[in-house]
Amino acid sequence: ALTVWCSDHGIPADDEEAVITATSQLPMDITTSPKQFAIRLDGVDITERLHQPEVSGMVSGYARIRAARNLLNSRMREIITNAGRIIVEGRDITTVVAPDADLRILLQADPQRRIARREAELAGAADTETVTEQVIGRDAADSESSEFETAANGVVLIDSSELTLEQVVEKVIELVPEELRTPA
């Protein structure tokens, strides 16, 4: 969301002070209902934009700014606390944002499999070379500011390289303790 906001407002990733200011004032609202999930900036739903190639290609530039990342992680903690039971995804979630969550899972997949899945998700909106550069490039950039590829103590690792989406969902559900499977 920060990348979309900064991009739309002409704030480049190399202007750290402006990015930090934008982060601290980010007019972001996240609905946490599983039936109507949305991320809004200043009242505008940007959910669909978050995974577009032009946004994905810029994310690491903003994510490397530690102070901005810390502000966003703090905001995520707030959202998680207020939501009660919630499923959250992201590279810092299991280690930084919610290290005490009831269940923490690290999903991994072979880079080539992730590239193929991303291409399918984009349905031709970006060529293989662009998708490869984005996936590999983001991993490299994010590895400098997050240990997202290593499962911390207590984090369950699922390698989804050879699994379908349905199989991944089954594995995750199997890990959820029975008492957490009913609505809060």
What does this structure look like?
- With 184 residues, this protein is mainly alpha-helical.
- It has one domain (2-180): P-loop containing nucleotide triphosphate hydrolases (Rossmann fold).
- The chain is built from 8 helices and 5 strands, in the order H-H-E-E-E-H-H-H-E-H-H-E-H.
- The chain has helices spanning 2-8, 16-24, 53-63, 66-83, 93-97, 111-122, 128-142, 165-175; strands spanning 28-31, 38-41, 44-45, 105-108, 156-159.
- The strands form 2 sheets. It has a 3-stranded antiparallel sheet with strand order 1-2-3, with no helix packed on it. Strands 4-5 form a two-stranded parallel sheet.
- Strand 2 (38-41) and strand 3 form a beta hairpin.
- Helix 2 (16-24) packs parallel to helix 4 (66-83).
- The model has no long low-confidence stretch (mean pLDDT 87).
Helix share bin: 40-55%
Strand numbers in spatial order across the main sheet: 1-2-3
How many H/I helices? 8
User: What summary fits the major beta sheet?
Assistant: 3 strands, antiparallel
State the assembly state of the protein chains. single chain
Taking the alpha carbons of the first and last residues, their distance comes to 28 Å
Number of domains: 1
* Alpha-beta classification: mainly alpha
> What radius of gyration results from the CA coordinates?
17 Å
Shape: globular
